[in-house]
Amino acid sequence: MRHPLTRELHDLLERGRDRQLRLAVTGLSRSGKTAFLTSLVNQLRHAGLEARLDLLPAAREGRLLGARRVAQQDLGVPRFPYDQAMSALDATPPRWPEPTRGISELRLVIRYRPSRRRLLGGETRELTLDLFDYPGEWLLDLPLLGHDYLSWSQAQQPTIGCERAGLFAVWHDAVSTLDPASEVDEARLAEIAEHYAAGLRAAREAGFSDLQPGRFLLPGELAGAPVLQFFPLPGIAEADRDTLAALPAQSLYATLARRFDHYLQHIVKPFYREHFRRFDRQIVLVDVLGALNAGPERFEDLSRALANLMQSFDYGRRSLLSRLFAPRIDRLAIAATKADHVTPEQHARLVGLLEALLAEPLKDLRFADVPVRALSLASIRATEAREVEQRGETLPALRGTTLAGEEVLMFPGEVPNRLPDAAFWARQGFTFTAFRPLPREGGALPHIRLDSALDWLIGDKLT
Amino acid sequence: MRHPLTRELHDLLERGRDRQLRLAVTGLSRSGKTAFLTSLVNQLRHAGLEARLDLLPAAREGRLLGARRVAQQDLGVPRFPYDQAMSALDATPPRWPEPTRGISELRLVIRYRPSRRRLLGGETRELTLDLFDYPGEWLLDLPLLGHDYLSWSQAQQPTIGCERAGLFAVWHDAVSTLDPASEVDEARLAEIAEHYAAGLRAAREAGFSDLQPGRFLLPGELAGAPVLQFFPLPGIAEADRDTLAALPAQSLYATLARRFDHYLQHIVKPFYREHFRRFDRQIVLVDVLGALNAGPERFEDLSRALANLMQSFDYGRRSLLSRLFAPRIDRLAIAATKADHVTPEQHARLVGLLEALLAEPLKDLRFADVPVRALSLASIRATEAREVEQRGETLPALRGTTLAGEEVLMFPGEVPNRLPDAAFWARQGFTFTAFRPLPREGGALPHIRLDSALDWLIGDKLT
Q1: Mutate to test the interface with B, among A221, A259, A267, A275 (most CBs of B within 10 A)
Q2: Which ranges in chain A are annotated with CATH 3.40.50?
Q3: Which value, to the nearest 10 degrees, does the dihedral of the CA atoms of residues B260, B261, B262, B268 take?
Q4: What is the third-level CATH fold of A4-134+280-383+439-462?
Q5: Please, which residues 167-206 of chain A have a Cβ atom closer than 8 Å to chain B?
Q6: pLDDT tens-digit series, residues A202-215
C-alpha cells in the first residue's frame, strides 16, 4: 500500500524526478525567436482545446491539459512580452511582434496526465517550464574567450569579402594611421571605435551575421562606456608579442588590450556563468531562407557565424566552454524557420540544406555525444499551400498577403538540398517574399511542426 | 631613475598626495547637469587662455595652465559626452546639449603651478580630476533603505496633492481591488505596476520631482523585469504585520515584498556601494526658478524631493548612510542654476530662496559638520543683462533669444528671498522664459559664477 507523502518530500521528489526544465531559445537577429516563443506559449496554453499538436504524443493522446504562466525566478531578467506579441498578432491587419532585445524569461506550469504505463492512480502532474530568449549574437562572443587581445586582433578579419570591406572602409582608413606604441588619445580612440561599431551595424543592416564583438550591436546601458570602445589592430603579429607586452599602460596597445580583457571578464563570462550554464535544453533558430535570398557572400557569412555560434554547444571534454563553465544542456534542436515561406514539398530539402550548412558543427556535436536534431518549422503560419494548373501541369504554390498588404499566389522557387554552388547563385533561383501572419481563428496560432520541436524539447518529460 | 608604475598603484599614490579628486555632479532632471559639466570641462581646458575664471585664485594668479582629458578608470561607465555637447552648443543656432541618462564619467588632468608660498622649485604639478554625473532621482531612493515593504507602503503617498492624485487615478482604481492575501496573478500585477510607472512618468512630465522608486523612470535594460514591477499597497497597516508576514510565498503581498527587497539589494545598494561612497566632493544643482514658475504644488514637491535627496549627504554618525556605506564626501556645494534667467540684482535673492528651500537639510548638514556652500550660477549664459528706461526710471532687463528663435528684452520678475507665501502665488509675480544658449565667441563658454563653484570644489587642491 502507498503512503501519502508530506508536501516537502513531494517537492523534493518532483525535483529529483525531472519536474522542472529550463529551455532556451536563441538565434541571430531576425531568425524568428519572438514568433517561436510566442507560438510555443500560445500552443501550450491552448493544449487540449484548440491547439493542433498531433506530433506531440502527450497532446495526441489527450493527456496534455494546458499551461499557465506563473512568477519567474530571477526578478532582474525582463519578462518575455507575450501579451504584447499576441496583441500585435491579433491586430487588424495582423502584425509580427516587436523583436526582443537582450535576454527575457517566462515561467509556465504545464499540467498533464501521465501515460498509462506510468499511471499509478488518476492524478495529474505538473512540469515547470522556464523559457529563456536571448540574442544568438551573444554566443558569437564565445570564441573571444579563447583569445587574448593580440591573437584576437590577428584572428579578426572584419574586412573579409569585398562588400564587408566597403562597410568598414572608414574605420580601416582611420586605424591604419595608428601606432600601437603611441600614447593613447582618448577622444581619437573613441572616434575610431565608433567607426568600428558603425561598420558592424552597417554590416548587420546589410544582412551579415558573423559580427564580433556581439555586444557592440546592442550596447544598452553601456553605450559610450570604454569597455565597448576597442577594435582589432590589423598590423600586429605574434612575433611582436614581447615588444607589445612591454609597452607602457598609457600606450594605445595596452589600452585596447585592457578593454578587451574587461569585455571578456565583465560581459562575455557573466552571461555564460549566470545564464547559459543553467539551461537544460536549447533550440537554435536559423533563417536559412533569408540567407539564401541574400546571395553568396551573406550565405557564407551565415555559415561562418553558425559555426562560431555552435561552439557554445560543443562541450566535449576538451572544449573551452566545458573547461570554463560546465554547461548541462542535454538536448539540442536546430530549426530552419519560416518553412511556410516555401511550398510544402520543399520542406525536406530545407532540412537537408540546414544540415549541409551545419555539417561541421554537427559532426563535432555528435562526436561530443550531444543529442541534436535538425528540423524545419513555421512558428506562426503566414501562408496557405495551394496548387495551380499551368499548361496541364499541377504545380505547388503559396497564397499569402505581403507586408505591403498585397494578396499573392506564388511559387518562391526550389530550395537546394545541399550547399548552393555557383550555378545556383548564377540562376538566382529563389525569391523570398515576406508575408503577414495569418489571422488567428479563435484559439491557437496556426503553425507548421512546432509540435515536432516541442516533442523533441519537452516530450520526454510528459510521459 | 623612475620606474613605470601600474595605473592602480599610481592612482593610490596620487590620492595619498592629494593629487586626485573625485567630483560628482547631480541634480533632478532638467536641473542643468549636462550644461554644468560641459562648461566645467570647457573652462578648465581653456584656463590660462580665453576662460574667465577670476573667482578661482589659481586662474586669477595665472597659475592654472590648462587641462586635458585622459582615459577614465572604470571601463564599464559611459564616458561623459563632452564633444557631442559642444557640437550642440556650436550649432547654428546654438542648441542645449542632450540630457544624459544614468551615470557617466570623465577624467581630466589639470596642470598648475603651485602658489609662491608652496613653491619648492619651478616645476608644474598635476591634479587628476574624476568627474561623475548621475541622476538626482537615484538619491531619492535612499530613504527606501530605511524601510521594509510594509513601512514603505505606508510612507508612500503618491496621491499627495490633488493634481498628483489625478495622475495616479488609473493605478489607484486598479490597486484598490487587490487583496494582499490572494494568490498573485502575474499578468495583472504587471499591468497594475505599469499603471504605477505611467503615473510616475506623467508626474515627472508635469514637473513633479518627489518620485519613488527612481529607477522606474529610467529602467534601461531592466524594462519589463519583475524587479521594476511593484508598488505600494495603500490599505495595509502596521497592525497587520504578523498576519501579512505569515502569508504564503505565492500571495500578492509576499510577491510585492520580495520585489521591493530585490530592488534594494540589486539596484539601490550597488549605486551607493560602487559609486557614491567613492566621491570626494559633490555639487547638487537645483532648478529653483523652474519650480517657482510651476506654481505652489510643484514648488512644495521640489522642497520635499530635495529634503529626501539631501539625506544622502547627511552622514552624521547615526545616519542610515554612514551605517551602511561610510561615504567620504568632504565638501558639498548646492547651486541654483540658470541664474542668467533673472536680472543680476536678483541673484542674491535667488541664493536666499535656495537656502530657505533647503533650510532643514542645511541645518542637519551643519550639525553633521559637512562643509556646505550655497550659490547661484549659470553654467552657460543664455542672456545678457541690459537696462531700460521707463517713465524716467532705469530698470534692469534681460536680452536673449527664446527657444523658438524670437529675440526678446524682458524683466522676468522678482525672486522671493524666502519661501513664497500665498500672496506671492496669488500675484504669480514671476515668468520664466527658456532661452537659447549664447553663441560661443572663440574659446570658452560664457558663464556666471562657475568659477566661484570651481573655487569651492577644487580651489584648495590648486594651491
Answers
A1: A221
A2: 4-134+280-383+439-462
A3: 90
A4: Rossmann fold (3.40.50)
A5: 184, 186-187, 190
A6: 998 888 888 889 89
